[in-house]
Amino acid sequence: MMPLRFRASRLAPALIAISMLSSCGGGGGGGGSSSGDGSFTSPSGETKDLPQMTMSCIDATQCSGGSVIRVDNGVALTSSGVQVYGISTSDLANPIIDKTNAHGLALASGGITEVRVDKDGNGGVTRLALILRQLGISWDDKTERPPIVETFQNTQGRIRLGSNGTIVPEPLPPSSDLVFYDWASKRAAGTQLHYANNRYFPRDGNPPRCAAGAPCPNYETTGLQSSAGNWRSGGTTPDIVSAYRLHEDGDIHAGDGPPDANGNPTILPGGDGYGVPHPGSKGERSFDGWSFEYANLAAWYTLDTVSIYEWNGRDEHNQNRRGIVAYGDVTGAGQVPDSGAASYSGVVYGWYARSAGDDPVRFHGTALISADFASGEALVTIQNTIADDGSAVTVPAALTATIKTGAASNYLTGAAGNASMSGGLSSRYFGPVVSTGTSGSGPAEIGGAFSLSNAEGATGIGGFIARKK
Questions:
Q1: Hey, which of 200, 295, 316, 388 would disulfide with 465, CB 3.0 to 4.6 Å?
Q2: According to the model, what pLDDT value does residue 26 have?
Q3: Domain total in the chain
Q4: What are 295-323's pLDDT values in tens digits?
Q5: Collapsing DSSP states into helix, strand and coil, what is residue 238?
Q6: H helices of 180-244, where?
Q7: Separation of alpha carbons 389 and 17, rounded Å
Q8: Which of 363, 351, 269, 340 shows the shortest CA–CA distance to 308?
Q9: pLDDT digits (tens, 9 = 90+) for 176-221
């Protein structure tokens, strides 16, 4: 079992070679234009119909959508959001030098992030689910691990996805259930899904098993932590929700060992007790969210042990993934005005690494958006980007971007950059069209995501949400 070095700070730094990144799927490249009827014209002039571009949630108040429709300017489009993500670079070395740490940042594509939130009558987030797929996380070096379904609940149990995509909570089987925990009898041919998305604490009876001298927490998560912003009274400060979890996904010590000749359970390899993996034995996960009434911004992070020896992995080590999602109740394409203008102001969050091998730092800033509905363009200004560690050190993630779409559409995309990095930015409008405030009539809110990089390995990913002035 690979020991982990846990990080106390929120959003600590997030098995594929760099040469494979372009083959992960999703595409990329230049921008295009959308029309109000849901079609999209690519830079080459090809026109295609886009799938449903409005929010349709399975079991949540607001959501991002569960599949990537296309990627433009390095940003993935979903039915009700846009997203970007990056991968650690320490696990790309051959051979891997540091197996217990995961650091560095490089842009990636092909993965899918789905965020679902429930909100109360006042617009506050009361429940969330983070679903991560196709991120190159493998326990056996052959197959993608089961989808991550993280709810940050602080009760014992497990989560699975139903056939229609619903989140299904289930009781956690006892460690003696070796039909469920079938690694004991099948070894690496066991059912990986039964060792994913389990919550073992609070735990009655057997104490957690921890390596000698290692931290030994007796909890996995404290659940969601939230605070209200001032947007309800006309301000631009969003609500904030955060969660952190020490997880055990892939730990075969969740079940007892096979019975001996007398019918008594034996101890699994590398264990000193029965069926009790210790919190964080295989990684950690975090979520930070910022919300207005209709638009939401999520920053997620997952650290995972991969190539696990018990699953026939060849080189057990740790890796991380991290990403940004702007999502919510998108404005219907036919509702976006085709004349007039409006301005928006809001907040920016993201990560920046000055080289591919450096741990990224988290940053925050402000966003100003000027939308011209007649031309289908918006000018996005990301400014005042500083490290989110109290140092107030400037982070070179400020940028300006002119993003474009056809008239009366809710998807805008374009190139973005600054003096040191280049990339792209995509955005969506959220909420009904309103005429309140000091600027013209327009959708109530806007949000977006961006990615930046340069030839020297500097990388930035971020996102924003803003409300109409």
A1: 295
A2: 33
A3: 1
A4: 999 999 999 999 999 999 999 999 999 99
A5: coil
A6: 183-186
A7: 31
A8: 269
A9: 999 999 999 999 999 999 999 999 998 877 666 676 777 778 889 9
Tell me, yes or no, whether 288 lies in a domain.
yes
Q: Is the pTM of this model over 0.85?
A: yes
- As a whole number, mean pLDDT of residues 76-101 equals 96
In SS3 terms, 108-176 reads as ECCCEEEEEEEECCCCCEEEEEEEEECCCCCCCCCCCCCCEEECCCCCCEEEEECCCCCEEEECCCCCC
Q: Which two tokens stand for residue 125?
A: 């987030």
pLDDT of residue 218: 81
Backbone φ, ψ for residue 22 (5° rounding): -70, -15
Pairing of strands 125-133, 148-150: antiparallel
As a whole number of angstroms, the distance between CA 451 and CA 469 comes to 26
**Six token digits for residue 27:** 């595409």
Closest by alpha carbon to 410, among 383, 447, 382?
Answer: 447
Instruction: Please say if the pLDDT value at position 6 is more than 90.
Output: no
Length of the chain: 469
Residue 258 lies in a domain: yes
Residues contacting residue 401 through CB under 8 Å, at least 6 positions apart:
379, 380, 414, 415, 416, 417, 424, 425, 450
| Per-residue pLDDT band at 57 (split at 50, 70, 90) | very high
Q: Which residue has the tokens 């979903």?
A: 78
Strand 157-161: give its sheet, edge to edge: 167-170, 157-161, 198-199
First to last CA, the chain: 53
Average pLDDT of the chain, as a whole number: 89
89 within 8 A of 105, measured Cβ to Cβ: yes
- Return the pLDDT at 204: 73
**Residue of higher predicted confidence among 412 and 1:** 412
The encoded tokens of residue 128 equal: 């969330």
Residue 5 forms part of a structural domain: no
pLDDT-based confidence at 409, cuts 50/70/90?
confident
Cα separation, 334 vs 359, in Å, equals 43
3-class DSSP state for residue 37?
coil
Report the distance separating Cα 434 and Cα 176, nearest Å. Answer: 58
DSSP state of 353: E
pLDDT tens across 183-194, in order? 999 999 999 999
List Cβ<8 Å contacts ≥24 apart for 385-391.
Answer: 385/348, 385/350, 385/352, 387/361, 387/362, 387/363, 388/349, 388/361, 388/362, 388/363, 388/364, 389/9, 389/361, 389/362
Please state, in angstroms and rounded to a whole number, the distance separating the CA atoms of residues 466 and 469: 9
Q: What is the pLDDT of residues 62-78, one digit of tens each?
A: 999 999 999 999 999 99
Q: Is the CA virtual torsion 127, 132, 137, 142 positive or negative? A: positive
| Residue 42, in any domain of the structure | yes
